[in-house]
């Protein structure tokens, strides 16, 4: 599935995300991963329940962050920005942490979404990006990376590695060091 099959749903999400000041690149890649923007999508039945709608909400999460039906694209988009806003608040604005809160898998979920977002694959469905709306994750990541150009070997290596991979490596290193305590 693809957003092109559901352009109105993609437009609802883009509008809600940009109005909330969240990153459309991340949201696009996340909802594309979750359902391909299919408002009628249903995940498999699990011990936690069945994920529903374009943003694949479980009933328990929907009860906290949504209203109406998770199959309604506008309601799902509003609930998505509410939930991601909550997760980003809990994570100090860190999208990697927030995405992990949404789905507990770095290799199968967080990392591919961040890679997609860093590549800038999100379409400008509504024309709001051309008008200067929304943040860019790749710009944000570049601004927090240190300048390694003064360390010749390391600088040459890192110049060929995408910024999201460097940040991901640093996050994993911190995680593993903290876990050893």
Summarize the structure.
The protein is built from 9 helices and no strands.
Q: If helices are DSSP runs of H or I spanning 4 or more residues, what is the number of helices?
A: 9
Could you give a short account of the major beta sheet?
Answer: none
Q: How many domains is the backbone divided into?
A: 1
Q: How far apart, in Å, are the first and last alpha carbons?
A: 44 Å
Elements, N to C (H/E): HHHHHHHHH
The proportion of residues in beta strands is under 5%
Radius of gyration: 17 Å
CATH class: Mainly Alpha
Overall mean confidence score, pLDDT: 82
User: Any guess at the CATH architecture?
Assistant: Orthogonal Bundle
CATH topology: Lysozyme
Global outline: globular
Structural class: mainly alpha
Beta-strand segment tally: 0
Q: State the share of residues found in helices, binned by percent.
A: 55-70%
Low-confidence stretches: 137-159
Overall description:
There is one protein chain. With 181 residues, this protein is mostly helical. The protein has a single domain, classed as Lysozyme (Orthogonal Bundle), CATH 1.10.530.10. It is built from nine helices and no strands. The chain has helices at 7-19, 24-34, 59-65, 73-90, 95-102, 106-119, 137-144, 152-158, 163-179. It is globular and about 45 Å long.
């Amino acid at each position: 599935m693809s957003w092109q099959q559901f352009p109105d749903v993609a437009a609802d999400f883009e509008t809600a995300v940009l109005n909330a000041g969240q990153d459309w690149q991340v949201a696009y890649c996340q909802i594309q991963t979750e359902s391909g923007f299919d408002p009628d999508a249903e995940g498999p039945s699990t011990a936690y329940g069945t994920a529903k709608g374009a943003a694949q909400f479980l009933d328990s999460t929907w009860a906290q962050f949504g209203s109406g039906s998770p199959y309604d694209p506008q309601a799902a988009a509003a609930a998505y920005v509410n939930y991601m806003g909550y997760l980003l608040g809990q994570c100090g604005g860190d999208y990697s942490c927030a995405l992990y809160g949404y789905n507990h898998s770095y290799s199968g979920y967080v990392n591919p979404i961040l890679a997609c977002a860093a590549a800038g694959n999100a379409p400008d469905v509504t024309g709001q990006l051309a008008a200067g709306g929304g943040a860019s994750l790749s710009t944000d990541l570049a601004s927090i990376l240190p300048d390694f150009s003064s360390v010749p070997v390391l600088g040459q290596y890192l110049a060929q590695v995408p910024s999201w991979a460097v940040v991901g490596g640093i996050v994993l290193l911190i995680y593993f060091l903290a876990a050893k305590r």
